[in-house]
Amino acid sequence: MYDSKEPMETFHDGYIVNACYRSAKSRKWEPVEIDDRRGGTTERIEVPKEMHDGKVVIKEELMPDGSFKRILQDPETGAVSQTVS
After folding, report:
1. 6: helix, strand or coil
2. Residue 41, pLDDT score
3. H or E element: which one contains 81?
4. How far is C-alpha 81 from the geometric centre of its chain's CA atoms?
5. Residues 30, 22: contact at Cβ < 8 Å?
6. pLDDT the model gives residue 33
7. pLDDT in tens, 26-77
8. Measured between alpha carbons, how far is 71 from 79 in angstroms, rounded to an integer?
9. What are the DSSP calls for 18-78, one per residue?
């Protein structure tokens, strides 16, 4: 029987997924060139950066002993460092 509901995945979704498969196969970032067939434009979502001691938190992990391991990046120099506290 024909179902008139729109599928969950769109052409756009499928195109992006195929680009991901190409990237996995080549083991590098593959470009995605597509006209936005969804109509309109999509605004970029900005997530506030978490800061610690004036540096951007790239990753934070709770260690088994209860301490926090943080990978930080200096926003001015781009230097990456690690702390455990």
Report:
1. coil
2. 62
3. strand 80-84
4. 21
5. yes
6. 74
7. 888 877 777 665 555 667 677 788 999 999 999 999 999 999 999 999 999 9
8. 11
9. HHHHHHHHHTS--------TTSS--PPPPPPPPEETTEEEEEEEE-TTS-EEEEEE-TTT-
Whether residue 51 contacts residue 57, with contact meaning beta carbons closer than 8 Å, is answered with yes
Supply the pLDDT for residue 29.
82
Question: Which strand ranges, in their side-by-side order, compose the sheet holding 51-52?
Answer: 51-52, 55-62, 68-73, 80-84
Angle made by CA atoms 25, 7, 23, in degrees to the nearest 5: 10
Tokens read off for 36: 């936005």
- Burial per residue of 1-32, b for 16 or more beta-carbon CB atoms within 10 angstroms, e otherwise: eeeeeeeeeeeeeeeeeebeeeeeeeeeeeee
Residue 35 token pair = 């006209």
